[in-house]
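On clarity, I found the account of how folds are encoded harder to follow than it need be. For illustration, here is how one protein appears when written out as sequence plus C-alpha cells:

:::
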Amino acid sequence: GAANYRGAASGLPSGLKIGPTTGTISGPPTTAGNFPGVMIAVNDTLSGQSASKTFALTIGYPPLTITTTSLPSGQLGQSYSAALSATGGSGSYAWSSGALPAGLTISPAGAISGTPTAPSTAQVSFSVADQTSGQSASVSLALTITATPLVITGSGSADVAVGGSLTLSYNVSGGAPPYQWALSGVPGFSV
C-alpha cells in the first residue's frame, strides 16, 4: 500500500519540496529558470524495491502588467511628479515613454517629473521592460497640463480731464506667457 512508499527528490528549485509519503511536489518556487535534472525517487519499505525518474522543470516569472491606470493633471509652471507601477516579471524594470509634455521627463524607475512649460492634453504611451525575464508591457495614458487662470491686477478706475495725462498700471498672472495686451472702448488711448 501507499504507506510503504518513501519519496525523495533532488535538483528541485528553491521553495519546492516533495511529500515523502505522497510523492507530491509543492510549494512556491522562489527562483525562475530551467531545471533539467530534477530527480524523484521512491522506495518501497516492504519489498525493498526502488525506482527513480529524472525530468525537466521550468519555472517562469509571473506576467508583467502595468498597474497605473491614470495620471494626475499638472499645472503650467508648477512642479509635477507622478510614479508608474507594474507587477510581475522579476522586478528589474526599465521604463520609457513617448513624447511627454514640454518640461517633463521619465526616469528608468518610472518617475515622471519636471516643470511643465506649455499647456498640453496628450495621450502618452508608456512602456516597461523587465530586464531579467525579457517581458514587456505598454499602456497609453492621458496626461493633461493646464494653465492657471488668467488674473489681471492693478489700478482701478480713474477720471481724467480732456488733455490731461493718465497712467494706469496693470499686471497679469497665470495663463501661459507671453501675454498680449489690448485696449478697447477708449477713444484716443492705446496700449
User: Anything to note?
Assistant: Residues 4 and 45 are 5 Å apart (CA to CA). The chain has a mean pLDDT of 89. The first strand starts at residue 5 and ends at 10. DSSP finds no helices and 16 strands in the chain.
